[in-house]
Amino acid sequence: MSAILFVDRDGTLIEEPAGFQVDRFDKLRFVPGVIPAMLRLRDAGYAFVMVTNQDGLGTDAFPRADFDGPHGLMLQVFESQGIVFRDILIDTSFPADNAPTRKPGLGLVQPYLRDRGIDWARSAMVGDRDTDVQFACNLGIRAFQLKTAQFGGEWDWAGIARELLTSPRTAEVRRDTKETRVVVRVDLDAHGEPVVATGLGFFDHMLEQLGKHGGFGLALQCEGDLHVDEHHTVEDSGLALGQALREALGDKRGIGRYGFTLPMDETLASAALDFSGRPYFVFDGSFRRERVGELPTELVPHFFRSLCEAAGLNLHLKVDGDNDHHKVEACFKVVARALRDAVRRDGVALPSTKGVL
């Protein structure tokens, strides 16, 4: 899914003159910092859509020819720097017309509302006026109002790029069924003590290993039908956690993607992991004991299979050893360490030649 940065034109990309209309070449001035910031955002996968109100464009008061020259030069400069707009949407009505296509109305962006390929959670709007902020509110995305002497605002372009590219990778998932109620919160860039409660002591300890050794914030609570057996609690915890990881990763730009071999006394576990978006799980190992604590050992691979299905994760997990407690714990720890490497953010490049993960 692609994120879109909707941008106003006058006062946002180029400075707005006293008479409001940029109708001569000598009036064309770029807003400070706009090109470096948009280049950073482009490299992070953002597409750009210009949405602008041009009052009375095409009338005698604002002839189209006066607009086209400076506008074309502006686009030429952006393109020379590697910045191309996916779409340029211009409303030519007057405020008194109350046209649905005029910002903050959404008439011009109706096709985007039906586009299932847009990552609305990461998309945003940049403008200089209150109408731009209201447009973003109507669209359900974040608004950044540029700081100007005329309209206020608090952002500059460098700050906008920094905010969008370093925003925390968090997610909260609630999974309610007739068998379980699960709440999971993850923060991939936070380090804290995991908080886990499933009613299965040893399983709680194993999930804590994922957060602790995975290097991410984890809170997971599950109320399950343990009076039946442990299966639904373990399975649904894996599904909810996998979904949370997928949502927190977003479009996966900048991640390591792949992840580790880990010894634990006589036990050796390895996890080959890929956030490919194509779930697949292979387990090579066995347990002699039926349970470790309250956790049935047959549910260990089942948990990881559920995690993979919900996270879009390819995982090959192998464990050898004599002590089943060590083997189960080593499985969780080695997957945690592989996750730590895979979700670590390093830059903004997408680790795939396909262009999508």
Describe the structure.
There is one protein chain. The protein is an alpha/beta fold and 357 residues long. The protein has 2 domains: 4-165, HAD superfamily/HAD-like (Rossmann fold, 3-Layer(aba) Sandwich); 170-343, Ribosomal Protein S5, domain 2. The protein has helices at residues 34-43, 64-80, 110-113, 130-139, 157-165, 201-214, 231-249, 299-311, 324-343, and strands spanning 4-7, 47-53, 85-91, 124-127, 142-145, 170-176, 180-187, 195-197, 217-224, 261-264, 267-274, 280-284, 291-292, 295-296, 314-320. A 5-stranded parallel β-sheet has the order 3-2-1-4-5, with helices on one face. Strands 6-7-9-8 form a 4-stranded mixed β-sheet, covered by helices on one side. The chain has a 4-stranded mixed β-sheet with strand order 10-11-15-12, with helices on one face. Helix 6 runs parallel beside helix 9 (324-343). It is elongated, with a radius of gyration of 26 Å. It is found in: Cytoplasm. Pfam families: Hydrolase_like (PF13242), IGPD (PF00475). Its main location: cytoplasm. In the C-terminal section; belongs to the imidazoleglycerol-phosphate dehydratase family.
